[in-house]
Backbone:
């Protein structure tokens, strides 16, 4: 009898456990498909967002590359402008020196060739100077 009582109590507990398991499985059967559907949609949305981000990253990479090329071109133009400005400044400086500098000595032209004349009979006599001035060192006198 004790064995029969323990068996009946065990069967009652198994029945309760089976009912709880059945309720849990019914609940999962109702909830799980909707949750799985939501997970699939979320996966698809993440895939689309990943593609968009990838496209945006490529676009940003392209823009950065163009900006870099523009910066290189601007740097080259700046260097050319600096060289041109320096050259112009040097040219203007030289032109101002030439235009405002001391007058250049003119080169004497050799006298035109004339037919040989008879030598003078006597050397010319220098004229006496009444008050001679001291020679100016900046003036060069040719004999």
Residues:
């Amino acid at each position: 009898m004790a064995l029969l009582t323990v068996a009946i109590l065990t069967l009652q507990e198994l029945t309760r456990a089976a009912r709880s398991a059945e309720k849990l499985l019914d609940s999962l059967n109702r909830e799980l498909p909707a949750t799985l559907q939501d997970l699939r949609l979320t996966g698809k949305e993440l895939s689309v967002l990943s593609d968009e981000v990838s496209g945006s990253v490529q676009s940003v990479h392209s823009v950065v590359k163009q900006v870099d090329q523009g910066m290189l071109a601007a740097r080259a133009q700046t260097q050319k402008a600096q060289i041109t400005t320096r050259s112009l400044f040097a040219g203007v400086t030289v032109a101002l020196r030439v235009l405002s500098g001391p007058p250049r000595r003119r080169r004497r032209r050799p006298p035109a060739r004339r037919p040989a004349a008879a030598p003078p009979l006597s050397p010319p006599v220098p004229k006496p100077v009444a008050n001679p001035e001291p020679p100016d060192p900046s003036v060069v006198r040719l004999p």
In short: DSSP finds one helix and no strands in the chain. Helices lie at 2-100.
